[in-house]
Design brief:
398 residues, alpha/beta, 6-stranded parallel β-sheet, 13 helices, 16% strand
Amino acid sequence: MGLEKKTLSDLELRGGERVLVRVDFNVPLEGGRVADDARIRAALPTVEWLRERGARIVLCSHLGRPKGRDPETSLAPVSERLSDLLGTHVHQAPDVVGPEVRRGAARLEAGEVLLLENTRWEPGETRNDPELARELAALGQVFVNDAFGAAHRAHASTVGVTEYLPAAAGPLLEREVTTLRGIIESPARPLVVVLGGAKVSDKIGLIDHFLGRADAILIGGAMCFSFFRAQGKPTGESLVEEEGVELASRALERVQAAGGAGCRLILPLDLVLADSFKADAEPRPIDGTDVPDGWMGLDIGPRTSDAFAREIEAGETVLWNGPMGAFELEPFASGTRAVAEAVAAAPGVTVVGGGDSAAALGEFGLEDRVTHLSTGGGASLELLEGRELPGVEALDDA
């Protein structure tokens, strides 16, 4: 278990080295300001560690999915927020690469920080273009990848640069990989997996992987309606992912074939319905899961919340990914809140992944009450499905 790759401490920095660090500063912006700085804060220990050792630090990240140079996706608001958090001025580069950027990197003093512009302004980034990778690598003497959220992408700034520089994992990447691999390879039992969100297709890899590993999988969110449809139950106007019905059907067949010997797949017992997806819609609890025509399921019901909470609190390892309902609408937040509180109160190892689950924990003031809050959405899903991450594989072996 573990990372089996070189880490920051293996770099033996003597001071003065220019270190190119891939961070995950893909944060939401509102009105030209950072709306949520959680990912910036997550990178602070790495930047501080390097500053204390006199490194000259060049940071790079993507933000959003721009098509070329787009001022709306500039990282300038991020360098402003990072300056505040570090208590020192962070230099903002005018571009990703080029003569002016090279001069800016060369001028850095020990402990100074330069943030490059959005790597996705360069079309070569997502193509893992060797020329762009070489230009990025020229800005540093060693490379540190601390962007777990981008580790599942084989891009120039995550994989390409490792061809030209000694490459190590940052502490954030190391902690993510070690924690998530631990859940797969040696979890304390019972292992309880709680899955929500809209799409079965997003989570089917996780369901398949954990049907052979977990003790219980609890299914909430809109994805439960694909399972109910697969069982032939009426789902009314509920959100049903059509391709998810077939996937759900196969998962149910696997559980049935195991005949109680394997993992228990637990679906909701009751629901909260509404006649429209609106914050002012009247919640209608039903005891059961048959959704009548003209109604949609927007949350798990109180019996389900209690049953799920009991399963979670009995777990020695709990993994939660995805909300239980439309928690962004206050009348339909109680299922997600109940699960969040149960995860926060669970006595064992608790790991939460996925942006919506993290947002829910934050909204309920519980983010400090879990063992590990993953910063990577797609990356954590792929790792938990047992897949290799290109951004991790490309680093130097320990």
